[in-house]
Design brief:
- The complex is a heterodimer.
- Chain A is α+β, with helices and mostly antiparallel strands.
- Chain A contains 20 helices and eight strands.
- In chain A, the strands form two sheets. Chain A has a six-stranded antiparallel sheet, sandwiched between helices. Chain A has a two-stranded antiparallel ribbon with strand order 7-8.
- Chain B folds into two domains: 51 residues, no CATH class; 207 residues, MetI-like (MetI-like fold, Orthogonal Bundle), CATH 1.10.3720.
- In chain B, 75% of the residues lie in helices and 0% in strands.
- The radius of gyration of chain B is 25 Å and the shape is globular.
- Chain B starts with a helix and ends with a helix.
- Classes of the chains: A alpha+beta, B mainly alpha.
- The interface between A and B is large, with 94 and 94 residues.
């Protein structure tokens, strides 16, 4: 078979593979998106009913509330049951066995807790004037049922919760034509046949035929995606219409019963149809009409990110196609076949690394570009995407201190403060480690010293103990009331120090702990290097009349350099990331002033639950280490030639 | 001349002894606390207005009464035994999985020349630079939220084993490289399969390196604190490090239990470390001094 034939076969195969890949991936994405829409639809209807009922009983007495709740429940077959909890009271219930109103029973404490939780979420949102915590709880643990909990407001005050069990089984609002793959598959077959008629030339990098193949691929992929997108838009419109119809029917019911008046114009916001923060969605006006431009804008916003994903899929397809056209795929296959044995050995470790190291790394960096927190992680990805905002907030905040009449007040939450603390922390620790390590190594390297081996083993002890235990022990020794260090100070007539209350003293606690556990490493490394320096060099120098200082300066230090520099480089990275000591000894006290970057990132993630912000913070740390690594290799290289 | 030497050494001994005291004091303090039979962070109860002697007595690492009750109680009244069991299971499973993954990969990297070999080795190296917290959040989401492996051994084990892989692979590869290829060639000629060679020849020859790898994997899991505290939420599933912090973190201050637990947890690690320190040090310096 000649080269052209070979290339042609590759191109046809590539076309098939890339189109199949694109179709499968796009279908998968559309399915996921449609599933999301169905879920939102179910929950939106339930939330609407719950909101409506809660509004209608806002200003009624207990008897009237109970009557209204049971009336509405009877009129709407989808509402299975409703309960209203106010404080310790079960105000109303449609379940016959409940006999509301009555006190909550012991088993119903969960309801009381939920009520308090929603109250505090609501207060948080009002207090901070940002919408941060969900105040509507939606629970879909049992298939076919949604349990919605909304705040129960009585006479303008938060009084408790209204919980509605909503049956979601019923007719499908989406009257859809089934998925159709016939057209793209027919086109694929046509393209494959056309492909076999092509003449590929082996010598040109780009020619018309190759462009034509790519064109065929893009045409088929986009045709299919457009078809699916239209169907999806139709679904969104149908969903909205279905909600609007339900809304109108229900609103008329309330109007007829005299519970809530139906709005006749479309100027006021629709308070029934809200998101989980009880903000009106604005897709349906108060009179039940659907504003066309809002709907279009909503769809546009909904699909903006999705369109990008589709483009990414198409790009992937083109990349695969190009790999086939230019013969990479064939070569990869050949390599895989030839070295099957080697790959079999590497695969388990590689899969582990890809799934649990490289994927989390990329996922973490992606997360940095969103505003994911504990409270909105259920939202679809595109709604959380905020671009570079996290990085702007971290790096662009220069509000480092405030000038007040009492002097300068530092802002300990600022990134640059934490960076400063981290740099000071790293430099002081490494300096202490190297100095103490060097002194002890020199001492232990003295000829004829007795008890060397014993000293060595004892001095190495701090390195052997797990560092989290060391940290907790030192935390105990620095205990402001009973700690031995304060006892020692008092023994010499000094005042006890509240170690964790001052910025400098708290920093010292970390420094002492880390100094204690890090000098043995330096000592051992330096001692090893010292012992490898030949004795006769010193003897020769002594004969030449060099004094001890000159011997140190011109023999010991230059010969230590190749060992010392990698050790320092390593210990800088270790100290920079020394999470356990800061976290366990001082905990960054006071007020987070002694936090280093890595503990700060941890606290942002697992105490404030701002996952995305913490991811961005960690990305910045990574970049700092990367830059350090880059310069460090250059410096090490420069010193090696010395 | 002899005079000067002794004098110099005296000074050295003073320096070394003071550092020895500094290095051992916290250790002795924990031991004293562990054998004190009480929970407070102070070793003795000070009188109302203590003088120099009483103060001095309180900083001496000597318990007021010798008692092993902390050791017995931490084991019987507290969940510590359970936590040690968790730690042991997780660490042993991590060791087995880690050594298996590292041995196979290192063997391939050492013996075969295949496309992607250099990239793969470089990837292992680069991954060591990823900061912990950047991995923490995605790992939490993947393991706890997606795979629902929170509060299980498996979740911790697979994460520990993979994080230990790069170091172990580099280390084992270095050792495999020193095993002459002739041995394998002659075995191949004798008709042994690759798998037999790996299993019967390479692994037994690499025993010392595998031992170090296993120790490293074990220590990674045994001493790990952050991931365990995030993955293991319920008290019964704590590993020993998380449990020890539980004794003295937040609002509880059971220093006696903490001290006794620390001694139990540290003993095997410190013993192994002091026993193997020579290899560790030669491993650390081998790369830098050429």
């Amino acid at each position: 078979m000649n080269v052209a034939e070979h290339l042609k076969r590759s191109a046809v195969l590539g076309l098939g593979v890339s189109i199949l890949l694109t179709l499968v991936l796009s279908t998968w994405m559309f399915r996921a998106e449609e599933g999301e829409l169905r879920l939102q639809q179910r929950q939106r209807l339930a939330v609407m009913h719950a909101n409506a009922l809660a509004l209608s009983v806002a200003d009624t007495d207990v008897g009237e509330t109970g009557r209204r709740v049971s009336d509405i429940q009877k009129l709407n077959p989808q509402i299975e049951s409703v309960i209203i909890v106010g404080g310790m009271q079960l105000v109303a219930s449609t379940r016959a066995e409940d006999a509301a109103p009555r006190r909550l029973e012991r088993e119903e404490k969960a309801l009381f807790d939920l009520s308090n939780q929603i109250r505090s979420a609501r207060e948080t949102n009002q207090g901070e004037e940002v919408v941060r915590k969900k105040i509507i709880q939606v629970d879909e643990k049992v298939a076919g049922h949604v349990v919605v909990t909304v705040p129960y407001i009585a006479h303008g005050e938060f009084a408790g919760i209204l919980q509605m069990k909503f049956n979601t089984t019923g007719e499908d609002v989406f009257g859809l034509t089934p998925d159709s793959y016939t057209l793209p598959l027919l086109l694929l077959v046509a393209a494959l046949i056309a492909g076999t008629l092509l003449r590929m030339s082996a010598d040109k990098r780009i020619d018309l035929v190759k462009l034509f193949v790519i064109g065929i691929f893009l045409a088929i992929a986009m045709l299919y995606q457009n078809q699916r997108m239209e169907r999806y838009e139709q679904m969104v419109v149908q969903a909205n219409q279905a909600v609007a119809e339900k809304y109108l029917a229900t609103a008329e019911q309330y109007d007829r019963l005299g519970y809530l008046a139906l709005a006749i114009d479309n100027s006021s916001a629709n308070l029934w149809d809200t998101d989980h923060y009880q903000r009106p969605l604005g897709l349906i006006a108060a009179d039940g009409s659907i504003p066309a431009e809002t709907q279009a804008a909503h769809f546009e916003k909904r699909t903006r990110f999705f369109n990008r994903i589709l483009w990414a899929i198409n790009l992937l397809g083109v990349a695969v196609l190009l790999m086939f056209i230019y013969g990479f795929a064939a070569r990869t296959y050949a390599a895989l076949k030839e070295h099957a044995y080697a790959y079999a050995y590497v695969t388990p470790a590689m899969i582990g690394m890809l799934v649990l190291v490289f994927f989390p790394f990329i996922y973490g960096i992606t997360l940095a570009f969103t505003d994911t927190t504990l409270f909105n992680e259920f939202l679809p990805f595109q709604d959380r995407w905020i671009g570079w905002d996290n990085f702007k907030a971290i790096l662009g905040d220069f509000n480092l201190y405030q000038n007040t009449p009492d002097g300068i007040i530092w802002n300990y939450q600022n990134f640059y403060w934490t960076l400063l603390v981290t740099v000071v922390w790293t430099i002081t620790n490494v300096t202490i480690g190297v100095t103490v390590g060097f002194l002890l190594a020199m001492a232990l390297n003295t000829e004829g010293l007795r008890g060397k081996a014993i000293y060595r083993v004892i001095l190495i002890l701090p390195w052997a103990i797990p560092n989290y235990i060391t940290a907790l022990v030192w935390r105990g020794m620095f205990h402001p009331q009973f700690g031995v260090i304060n006892q020692m100070l008092q023994m010499f007539g000094m005042e006890p120090v509240a170690w964790f209350d001052g910025v400098a003293s708290s920093f010292l606690t970390g420094l002492a702990t880390n100094g204690w556990l890090s000098f043995p490493f330096m000592m051992v490394v330096i001692l090893g290097a010292l012992q490898s320096i030949p004795r006769d060099m010193y003897e020769a120098a002594e004969v030449e009349g060099a004094n001890p200082w000159q011997r140190l300066r011109y023999i010991t230090l230059p010969l230590l350099k190749p060992t010392l520099i990698p050790a320092i480089v390593l210990s800088v990275v270790w100290t920079f990331n020394m999470f356990n000591i800061i976290f366990l000894v001082s905990g960054g006290q006071p007020a987070g002033a002694n936090e280093i970057l890595i503990t700060k990132a941890y606290k942002i993630a697992f105490e404030n639950y701002q996952y995305a912000y913490a991811a961005a913070y960690s990305t910045v740390i990574f970049i700092i280490l990367l830059v350090y690594g880059f310069f460090q290799t250059r410096i090490t290289k420069a010193t090696e030639s010395y | 001349m002899a005079d000067i030497k002794t004098k110099n050494h005296l000074l050295l001994h003073v320096v070394l002894i003071s550092f020895t005291v500094l290095a051992t004091y916290p250790v002795l303090w924990v031991l004293a606390l562990a054998f004190s039979g009480q929970q407070s962070v102070g070793l003795i109860d000070l009188p109302k207005d203590p003088g120099f002697i009483e103060r001095f007595r309180s900083i001496l690492p000597m318990p007021a009464h010798l008692s092993v009750s902390n050791f017995t109680e931490v084991w019987t009244d507290q969940d510590f035994g359970r936590w040690m069991w968790n730690s042991a299971v997780v660490s042993l499973m991590t060791t087995m999985l880690g050594v298996f993954l590292a041995c196979t990969a290192a063997y391939a990297f050492s013996r075969f020349r295949f496309p992607g070999r250099n990239t793969g080795m470089l990837m292992f190296l680069v991954s060591q630079m990823f900061p912990g917290t950047l991995m923490l959040i995605p790992l939490f989401i993947i393991i706890v939220k997606w795979l629902e492996l929170g509060n299980t051994y498996v979740g911790l084990v697979i994460v520990y084993a993979t994080t230990a892989i790069p170091f172990c692979v580099w280390m084992l590869k270095g050792y495999f490289d020193t095993i002459p290829y002739d041995i394998e060639e002659s075995a191949l000629i004798d008709g042994a399969s690759r798998l037999t060679i790996f299993w019967r020849i390479i692994l037994p020859l690499a025993k010392p390196a595998i031992a170090i790898t296993a120790l490293f994997s074990f220590m990674t899991a045994w001493n790990e604190f952050i991931l365990a505290s995030i993955f293991m939420e319920s008290e019964l599933n704590y590993t020993a490090p998380v449990g020890l912090r539980f004794f003295v973190g937040g609002f509880s201050s059971q220093w006696g239990y903490f001290a006794a637990g620390s001694v139990i947890v540290s003993l095997p690690v410190v013993g192994l470390f002091l026993h193997l320190q020579k290899y560790l040090i030669s491993g650390l310096t081998a790369g830098s001094v050429k």
